[in-house]
Amino acid sequence: MIGVDGSTRSVDGLDDRSPPPGRQAVVMAALVLGLLLMGIQLWLLTVALELFLGGHGRQVWLLAVVSGLIFVGGLVMLKVLRRRPRPTL
Amino acid sequence: MSDLSMGGAGGAPLSRVGRAPWRAAFPYHWDADDLVSRRELLRFAVLTSGTLFVGTAVLAVLGWLDNRRRGTPTPIVQASRVPEGTAHYFNYPEPDDQAVLLHLPGGRFVAYSQKCTHLSCAVYYQAEQKRLYCPCHEGVFDIETGEPTAGPPQRRLPRIELRQEGDALIAVEEVP
Prior knowledge:
Strand content of chain B: 25-35%
Structural class of chain B: alpha+beta
Largest sheet of chain A: none
Low-confidence stretches of chain A: 1-8
Oligomer: heterodimer
Shape of chain A: elongated
Order of helices and strands of chain A: HH
């Protein structure tokens, strides 16, 4: 609805506009990257299981380090996205 | 939507008076809904990523701690009773664990668990083909190393370390 001051705002106080240009692309890119890295982690887990069952469990720590770095990267990505909220009117 | 007619009277704030019940349950504008869903999915992906990391880390810790060498030194058979190119079947490290001792051409002795690394069927020595063969799914293992050479198995057979004292062959331990 249009307020008395001419701004566009719904009755709930929510923004009527779409997200700023480029914002959706950033979130979409982060999402695709996150899913891709999650796939890599799944592959790392299967390799780790294969090594463990094959009796080479002492080589698994390197895979765990890589998997941990990917997880930390995902957390950082979430934090960066949260730091830039949608601008409101 | 006639929000003003629903609410403005009585001086109540417009945004609260005009709230439809479904708005309380789903407080997203349709434009923002797309973005929120992706953010939620991303959060879920990172959470799953953490779970996968924990799984890999647990395997790393288990692999570091777990020493799966099994068995105690146990006499198997007299070496002279196993001619070159033949096999002797025995149980090791537990009475229910089947194993096979091979007298390789050249005089060397090797021993492996009989449990196929595919689905745990028993493997047998085929002297003509000089191979260890799993009849369940036609898995084949090399007699020198225990490594799979054909069929579905991907891992080598657990090896049994041997020691020879005089004529006696002694199984020392099973190594995965």
